[in-house]
Design goal:
Elements lengths: L1 H5 L4 H45 L4 H7 L8 H15 L15 H7 L14 E7 L9 H12 L3 H8 L3 H9 L1 H36 L1 H24 L1 H11 L2 H19 L7 E2 L5 E2 L13 H14 L6 H20 L10 H35 L4 H17 L2 H44 L25 H14 L3 H26 L27 H13 L7 H17 L33 H7 L4 H26 L1 H17 L1 H28 L4 E2 L11 H8 L13 E2 L1 H12 L2 H21 L20 E9 L7 H7 L2 H12 L2 E8 L1
Antiparallel strand pairs: 1-6, 2-3, 4-5, 6-7
């Protein structure tokens, strides 16, 4: 024990040494971890600085022309970004690269800054710098583009709206109501077409029914003709002439011929001289007949009878066979004429065809009548449940109430019931009548043939050929009689007056057609370039010609595609973009007036063919989206005309003088024919609308303004033509105080209301892409783009900058670690040392 205690000297040293091994290991390990942490912070800052540096290489042309920021697509600029990586790495070891600033070289030399010394804990770090562009972080994305446009316009839009001298928000509110107006007008024009169609169908139906109503009189005419025929045949048969004919025809022709020859022989003998006469011959001698004539035998009683029959027959012209046949034929003709009924529309042989035609018309009327009832219900629903302009609502409701009286479902059913009645009850009777006539006339033919032979024939003709009791008059049904009487009153008793209003309706239709044709045949001339199809921008669609009713229907459909109304943010974004577009791009009226200063963009650049690739058709492309500038101009025109058609149609109700004139004509025509009254009123309204719309377009092309919602006579542009059509004498001399919109202001409304936000953004992006390429290429006025070098989808607006670092353990002794840690922990520690650390920072404009 004592020896052990004497040998304990130095044990503390050993103990401390044993303690120091793990202490040094852990201290070194924690120190290295601190170095890694500090290096990581430096890497994050380096990545951040590199990201900001990448963003400094923006596309200057894009920024100058359109105020948008994106990383350059220029190869030289992208190469500079790669070169900057080496500079960014010096933040870990400033003295490593020996970078000197050329413009501060002298100052750096003076201050000794060209050589950096001091504590550099990351000198041994392995550093990698890189960048990449995030997906969708480019101007090819609508959200990104819209955000930059919104930032650009945030403090400019108010100024732009003031310069427009219009209250855009008020106009938007006004136009937003036009969606329901256009829907109601679309349905009303469809209804008017159906009414005009059913009017013609009912008129045709009446003509068929009128012919059928004449059938009883036609039947009675046949009975009369047949009775007369029977009487005539009997009278012929009982006449003395016929008896002579029959007596002559009953004998043997050869016997009569022989008797007549014998009588002639006797007469010849009696007329000759029986005395012998000597004639004096040459030399004074006389001669005598060489033989005496032999006297014929006298006529026998039978021969005398036959000669008497022949004399009676030949001496009576009416007894001649040809004459007898003619008399019989004349008698038969009375029946044939009555059956043929040349002066009438109905016959035995066409009755079935007329009934079939009537049935077809009834089905057409029933079908169109149901469509009319459906359209009336749809219009009523729109008027009851939608926000419709008050003047339009009141006028349509009045028209609708009148139509409901004319086209009740119960009344429409009667048209079909009459056709069914005739098919069921009278078609079989007509067939029976036909067979009766055929049988009777066959018997008449037999009688005549017998009488001509001559032979006796037992004939007991009926007193009445066609029985009246078998016929079923459709007017025996009260509802059918009521409808027919109404049709007679409508189409028969007012023929001249009806023609008068038909002519007025035709005049209205002619005026409408002429105005439509002037718009349809208008030639669009433009020098604007087209978008090459290979660029994949627009559509290749033919623009439909102008037709008012189609335009109104298109307006309702175009309004319905606008989806921003329930989203205030989307509305604001769209307004920003549209206002931006109108400050950056040209239209058909840009720089047209040579007396005015050239228009410049919001960034101060003059609009021309060198910069604006679709010069004088860009804004129209926003609306139409076609590759062809001509098509875009025509489509823009048609869409402006569509909204003008809706508002001009509404004006026919809103403007008192116009509405009262149309109603006066309509009411007068209604007194003659209720359905015609509806058709005439509809034709006049459509004609007024087309005339006004055509003149509106003429005003807009000339740079004049047109009132958006017309409520006064002085708001109209085509009043003189309309007054001639309506016979109105009112004058529109007063100056109106309504705001008038020019072409571009209407175009702006169309783009806002008749395109989606995505369409506006896509087309705006396409125009910017085209124009930047045109500016880069330095296009001349007569040159076109062969290809695109600048792409908005490659115009990146954000960058992911990455710094990757690796730092070895410098403080922690590897041997200590191997002694202290287990083999598994040691291996894990060595693997940990091999790790690299990546720090990515996203930066954007």
């Amino acid at each position: 024990m004592e020896l052990f205690l004497k040998r304990s000297k130095g044990s503390i040293t050993v103990l401390v040494t044993l303690i120091l091994v793990p202490t040094i290991f852990f201290t070194g390990f924690l120190t290295d971890l601190s170095r890694l942490k500090l290096c990581g912070n430096q890497a994050a800052m380096a990545a951040d600085n590199y990201g900001e540096t990448v963003l400094t290489q923006y596309d200057n042309l894009l920024k100058e022309l359109y105020g948008l920021f994106a990383v350059t697509q220029n190869e030289e600029g992208l190469k500079a970004l790669d070169n900057l990586q080496a500079y960014m790495k010096t933040s870990f070891d400033p003295s490593a690269s020996g970078i000197s600033w050329e413009h501060l070289e002298a100052v750096q030399g003076f201050t000794g800054l060209n050589k950096v010394e001091g504590f550099m804990p990351y000198r041994s770090a392995k550093v990698e710098m890189s960048y990449e562009f995030p997906e969708n972080a480019n101007l090819g994305d609508n959200v990104v583009l819209a955000t930059q446009v919104g930032d650009f316009m945030r403090f400019r839009i108010a100024e732009q709206l003031v310069e427009d001298d219009t209250d855009l928000l008020d106009m938007l509110d006004t136009v937003s109501n036009l969606e329901n107006d256009s829907k109601a007008i679309k349905k009303k024009t469809e209804l008017d077409k159906k009414v005009d169609k059913i009017f013609k169908e009912i008129k045709d139906y009446y003509q068929y029914l009128k012919a059928i109503d004449a059938y009883p009189a036609y039947r009675d005419g046949i009975n009369t003709g047949y009775a007369s025929c029977v009487t005539d045949i009997k009278n012929i048969h009982e006449s003395i002439s016929y008896k002579r004919y029959a007596a002559y025809k009953s004998e043997d022709p050869e016997a009569i011929k022989s008797a007549l020859a014998h009588r002639q022989e006797i007469e010849d003998y009696n007329s000759s001289s029986h005395e012998e006469e000597n004639t004096e011959t040459e030399g004074g001698e006389k001669s005598e007949s060489t033989e005496d004539s032999q006297k014929p035998d006298p006529l026998s009683p039978e021969e005398e009878r036959l000669c008497a029959i022949s004399d009676d027959y030949t001496g009576d012209p009416e007894a001649q066979e040809s004459r007898i046949k003619q008399k019989f034929a004349d008698a038969v003709k009375k029946v044939a004429d009555a059956v043929e009924n040349k002066d009438g529309d109905i016959r035995i042989d066409n009755f079935e065809a007329i009934v079939v035609s009537l049935d077809h018309k009834a089905k057409d009327i029933t079908k169109d009548g149901k469509d009319i009832c459906k359209l009336m219900k749809e219009i009523q629903d729109i008027l009851d449940n939608k926000s419709v302009s008050e003047d339009l609502k009141s006028g349509l409701q009045d028209d609708l109430d009148k139509m409901k009286e004319l086209f009740g479902e119960n009344k429409l059913q009667v048209y079909a019931s009459i056709a069914e009645y005739l098919k069921e009850k009278d078609l079989p009777v007509n067939k029976e009548y036909s067979q009766t006539i055929e049988t009777a006339m066959l018997e008449v033919s037999n009688v005549i043939n017998a009488y001509l032979k001559p032979e006796e024939y037992e004939w007991n003709p009926a007193e009445t050929l066609l029985e009246q009791a078998k016929w079923n008059d459709f007017k025996n049904v009260a509802s059918q009689k009521e409808l027919y009487d109404e049709l007679v009153k409508t189409f028969k008793t007012n023929g001249e007056k009806e023609d008068q209003y038909e002519k007025q309706k035709q005049a209205a239709n002619t005026a409408k057609d002429n105005a439509e044709n002037s718009l349809t045949n208008e030639t669009t001339v433009t020098s604007a370039r087209d978008i090459p199809q290979d660029f994949g921008y627009g559509r290749n669609t033919a623009v439909a010609p102008f037709k008012l009713t189609d335009m109104i229907g298109a307006a309702a459909d175009m309004f319905s595609i606008n989806k921003f109304k329930s989203n205030a943010n989307m509305l604001l974004l769209k307004l920003y973009t549209v206002q931006y577009d109108f400050g950056m791009f040209s239209s058909r009226v840009t720089n047209v007036n040579k007396d005015q200063e050239k228009e410049v963009s919001l960034t101060g650049y003059e609009m021309n063919r060198q910069i604006n690739y679709l010069y004088q058709a860009e804004l129209e492309y926003l609306l139409g989206g076609n590759n062809s500038s001509k098509s875009n101009l025509e489509e823009a025109r048609n869409k402006i005309l569509a909204i003008r058609a809706v508002t001009d149609y509404t004006a026919t109700y809103a403007i008192h003088e116009v509405n009262s004139s149309i109603k006066a004509v309509q009411n007068a025509a209604t007194a003659v024919n209720p359905i015609l009254g509806v058709a005439v009123g509809a034709a006049l309204r459509i004609a007024v609308t087309v005339l006004e719309t055509a003149q509106d377009w003429s005003y807009l092309k000339d740079g004049k303004g047109v009132v958006l919602i017309k409520r006064h006579l002085e708001d109209m542009t085509a009043y003189s033509s309309i007054a001639a059509l309506l016979g109105n004498t009112a004058e529109n001399k007063a100056e109106d105080k309504c705001v008038r919109l020019d072409y571009e202001q209407y175009l702006k409304l169309m783009i806002i209301f008749m395109t989606t936000t995505d369409q506006v953004m896509n087309r705006t992006r396409n125009l910017i892409e085209l124009n930047v390429n045109a500016a880069e290429a330095g296009l001349k006025e007569d040159q076109n783009l062969p290809s695109l070098t600048f792409h908005m989808k490659d115009a990146h607006t954000a960058v992911n900058a990455t710094c990757t670092v690796h730092l070895d353990f410098l403080v922690m002794p590897e041997g200590f670690a191997q002694k202290v840690a287990t083999s598994d922990d040691y291996n894990s520690l060595m693997e940990f040392e091999k790790n690299s650390y990546k720090f990515t920072v996203t930066r954007g404009y």
